[in-house]
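Morning. Coffee machine broken again, so started the prediction first thing and wrote up yesterday's gels while waiting. Chain of 149 residues, entered below exactly as on the submission form.
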Amino acid sequence: MPLYELLVIASHHAQLAPIRTLATTTSSLILANGGVVRSLDHWGTRNLPQRMKRGDGSSFSGVCVRRALGYWTMRFDANPPTVAALNERLRLDPRVLRWTTLKVGTTLAQVISPPEDPTIRYSRGAFVDLASADSHSEQGQLAPGAPRY
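Came back before lunch.
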């Protein structure tokens, strides 16, 4: 089963009971369909960086919201029909403002291995060791095609 990561932004109450019940119902749906919950992290209460409406406009009476909301994440293994049912349940829940489900990987190698460095390194000439380049530059013996810094 693929590994997924779920991020939920839900309405905040003075007590954490509504967020706790939302997290338990979400995890019980995954467990009931043969999935495994790997971790559940509550990020706490944060203010929204900008005004936003709920995705379908049904919650909060279509009014733009800018207030403190509860953020939490969950990492879980589940099959794709379970993820579709989970997205449907979160879409219908009035406490959820936004959510996203990311597929982390399908194989163990994709999940465990660190991501590749996306930095592209360009070179203008031949490789020159900077420590040896300083000693050679005094003598005027740089590698052919090497840039002078």
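The chain is about 30% helix and 30% strand. Going to sketch it on the whiteboard this afternoon.
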